[in-house]
Amino acid sequence: MSTSKVTSKQGQADKLYLKDKGKTINMSHGSGGKAMRALIDDVFIKGFSNPILDQLEDQARLSLKELSALGDRLAFTTDSYVVDPLFFPGGDIGTLAVNGTVNDLAAGGAKPLYLSCGFILEEGLPIETLRRVVTSMSQAAAEAGVFIVTGDTKVVNHGSADKLFINTAGIGVINKKVDIAADRAIPGDVIIINGHIGDHGAAIVDARGELALESTIESDCQPLHELVQTMISACDEIHCLRDATRGGIATVLNEFAEASNVGIRLDESAIPIRDEVRGMCEILGLDPLYLANEGKMLAVVPAKHAQTVLAAMRAHKQGEHSAIIGEVVEQPASIVVLQTMFGGERIVDMLVGEQLPRIC
Amino acid sequence: MMKYVDEFRDPVKAQVLKHEISELVKQIPSAAERPLQIMEFCGGHTHTIFRYGIEQMLPKSIELVHGPGCPVCVLPMGRVDDCVALAERPNVIFTTFGDAMRVPGSKKSLLQAKAEGADVRMVYSPLDSLALARKNPDREVIFFALGFETTMPSSALTVLQAEVEGIKNFSLFCNHITTVPTIKAILDSPDMRLDGFLAPGHVSMVVGEQPFQFITANYNKPIVITGFEPLDILQSIWMVLKQLAENRCEVENQYKRIVPVDGNEPGLDAISKVFELREFFEWRGLGSIDHSGIRMRGEYALYDAEQKFTVPNLKIADPKSCQCGEVLKGVIKPWECKIFGGACTPENPMGALMVSSEGACAAYYNFGNLPELLAKRKATKPEGEAV
């Protein structure tokens, strides 16, 4: 996401929440009474408006006929968002809450369609903050072509939550021809990623202001379903897909290796990573392989289709910096091995403990 | 390209050094009978060795022994218990470097204490901790000071700064340890069979070259002060081998770009102003070592958490099954330990060396790509591991 885009978005939002200035969330906004109704109408309905939501029933009603025209399986997923800080270069908790769930659907090859959205608000949260988050959620949803069709709001006492938490669930449809699963990797496949790793994790650390870095690192928060559809169109034999969020690419590759009972060999020199991110990792002793991403998809593809898929990805705006970063091998099974840039080898294990808290 | 970093990770130069090391080791007769053992003392070196896979680049006739230089790892359980006790005092903000949060005490780690409500915060420097004290004048801010000579100057200077500013709600819980008595203890142990040392670069930056002279003079072992990039390590191994091949025994300095011959005078001054040696200090895995610990001088009692508050100060024995001591001295390899990967894993560390990623056992467990290690991992991997 470009800086100018963020600035203009902020400019729009500034106008919108001028009228909210000084107003904060209190317990009555979650009481089910008049204050809550006013908040829902003014902030959520206005922000998310679409024909299904606007019916204002207790549940969204979705046409089975329309769904089944798109494929033969429903994809259904949920995720909660607790990122700290709420706003960071390249996105905010709202864009995360939409794109994160869209990407979980996309990773199954599904076309994402509908989202639900639950808010947990801390008493004292400025209403302008809430409106700003809702605005970016509605923009992200429009960008991803999904509708937020049902929702819920709860308010908790000051101190019982930190400002604002969001849960979204998503529904999508998987086309008949698509069969993507973590246990389908076989020796001879190659590993492809759609761009630089670790941007989101680094952006959050940067935004927390614990380090005075010269350059700003932006989150890679973006929806990936169009990229995935492009990949599927280029090759109907994609074996595995997963978006590498918390735990980074190391975690997802370990999941593939374990589920498929294969080994994975990574080539460190082929893994795209920005200098700023590498620099930050050097200073803080973080391993970028474990840094969170919010717009990165790992694909396992048969070697014979690798160049076709790679070319299709590179032609897409969410995959310009795509690269082949490794291969699937037989042994050692369930283990990810990194060929280091230096000429040595090491294992890349699942993360122990926690590298960074509240990253998404 | 990152300047001043990538130059020291050049794979082409690495291949040249790798070749020269293999040639050089052939000129050392004893290497034909049994592998040469070179100990890197410092946890930072251990980390580099594993991170870049340096061990596999060396010929079989060279073994690296990973020493006790990870201050987080060698911290005894009793001291962690003291940390937890301090952190759980009402009104205390307990600040620590991040990697000390997970170290298990006899009942819990700082991370668990935090989860139960203690105000434990991660900082990058003791000055961050002093800033917290400034910002929260009604709270007691304690900094968990640990590490070798590398981190001592910053702890000392922070105390001096607090004194200048008259900040009264800041104190250190001092767990600093010294390098030389510890190397000496290892060299004195009867089952020791090391052939040479890589000396810690950051410690040397503070203390200089002189404190290591006894290793060459009294124990006849070559030692090379070593930097932290992978090429530094390879070059230093080559330098140790060169000494062995030429029958020399000296303190050499590979890390000249950082380490001055006489160390850092202002840093040493601050250290001696604020700190003094303890008679002995307990190490996890190694037991009690004379004059290896540091405490604060009486003049700075006001800034000494141990004197300002009461700490339980109970000695907790290492688990019996733990073989950390033997691993530290290079007598056994980490995976030869009875509990490696089974009862003792990075998730649930029993022994010191499994605690931090700079500990030898954790490094092997996390990074080691050796057949015997992979077999052990497989054999001990718990079923249905939660993801």
User: How big a fraction of the residues of chain B is strand?
Assistant: 15-25%
From the alpha-carbon coordinates, what is the Rg of chain A to the nearest angstrom? 21 Å
Instruction: Note poorly predicted spans of chain A.
Output: 1-6
Mean pLDDT of chain A: 91
- Strand tally of chain A, please? 13
Describe this structure in words.
- The complex is a heterodimer of chains A (360) and B (387).
- Chain A is α+β, with helices and mostly antiparallel strands and 360 residues long.
- Chain A folds into two domains: 3-174, 2-Layer Sandwich (60s Ribosomal Protein L30, Chain: A); 190-347, PurM-like C-terminal domain (Phosphoribosyl-aminoimidazole Synthetase, Chain A, domain 2, Alpha-Beta Complex), CATH 3.90.650.10.
- Helix content of chain A is 32%, strand content 22%.
- Chain A is built from ten helices and 13 strands.
- In chain A, strands 8-10-7-11-9-12-13 form a seven-stranded mixed beta sheet. A four-stranded mixed beta sheet of chain A has the order 1-6-4-5. A two-stranded antiparallel sheet of chain A has the order 2-3.
- In chain A, helix 1 (3-16) packs across helix 5, helix 2 (34-48) runs parallel beside helix 5 (127-144) and helix 4 packs parallel to helix 5 (127-144).
- Residues 1-6 of chain A have low confidence and may be disordered.
- In chain B, helix 3 (43-51) packs parallel to helix 15 (360-367) and helix 7 crosses helix 12 (265-274).
- Chain B is an alpha/beta fold.
- Helices cover 37% and strands 17% of the residues of chain B.
- Mean pLDDT of chain B is 89; it is low at 383-387.
- In chain B, the strands form four sheets. A five-stranded parallel beta sheet of chain B has the order 2-1-7-8-9. A four-stranded parallel beta sheet of chain B has the order 4-3-5-6, sandwiched between helices.
- Classes of the chains: A alpha+beta (360), B alpha/beta (387).
- Chain A binds chain B through residues 210, 255, 275, 278-279, 282, 332, 334-335, 337-338, 340-347, 349-350, 352-353, and chain B through 1-2, 5, 9, 11, 14-15, 18, 50-57, 102, 124, 230, 346-347, 365-369, 374, 377-378, 387.
